[in-house]
Amino acid sequence: MALSFKKDLEKYKEIDEDEILNKLSEEELKQLESALEELDPENALLPAGLRQKDQTVKTATGPFNRDNLLQYLEKEALEYKDREDVVPFTGEKKGKVWVPKEQPIESRKEEVTTLDPELEEALSSATDTELCDLAGERTNETENILEMRNTSDHH
Fold first, then answer.
1. Alpha-carbon span 29 to 40, nearest angstrom
2. Closest CA to 132 of 120, 122, 146
3. CA torsion through residues 75, 76, 77, 78, sign
4. Which InterPro entries does UniProt cross-reference here (predicted)?
5. Cα–Cα distance between 47 and 27 in angstroms, integer?
6. Which of 7, 46, 91, 146 has the fewest CB neighbours in a 10 Å radius?
7. Where are the domains of the chain?
């Protein structure tokens, strides 16, 4: 049974669809189009604009100009009168006014480090290169040591 069905389909492989469509009149093409569109009008895979046939036969009134359209829409919106409120706003405030909770401000105190007098004397008399060698690399640690040295000089 399946083989006879395939044999029946073989004869349709040789048909030239374009030739058939070219032979149809404008009226027949419109009928064919409407018949094809009625097969599945609720096809969710198609975009909404393509789910029904184009029913407009008008010619374009002019070229599309976005700026002119926007100007027209803004002008129309400004000229359009708003509807009156049924209940006018009185300005009365109801309920409590929200007040944010005050969070305690964290005060950070600088830690004061005290060094042995010998170490403090060695650091204060050391040159910058010696301090960098002590720190190992020129990183944030180097800046911290230089800063400590400067603050100890001021005290």
1. 18
2. 146
3. positive
4. TMOD
5. 27
6. 91
7. 2-39, 117-154
Flag whether pLDDT at 154 surpasses 90: no
Residue 84 has pLDDT above 90, yes or no: no
Q: What is the pLDDT of residues 21-70, one digit of tens each?
A: 888 888 998 888 877 766 566 778 877 777 776 777 788 888 889 999 99
Q: How confident is residue 77, by pLDDT bands cut at 50, 70 and 90?
A: very high
Map the chain to HEC letters.
CHHHHHHHHHCCCCCCHHHHHHHCCHHHHHHHHHHHHCCCCCCCCCCHHHCCCCCCCCCCCCCCCHHHHHHHHHHHHHHCCCCCCCCCCCCCCCCCCCCCCCCCCCCCCCCCCCCCHHHHHHHHHCCHHHHHHHHCCCCHHHHHHHHHHHHHHHC
Model's pTM, two decimal places? 0.24
Distances (CA, A) of 103 to 46, 100, 106: 57, 9, 9
Nearest of 90, 89, 83, 151 to residue 123 by alpha carbon: 151
Q: Letter for the amino acid at 72?
A: Y
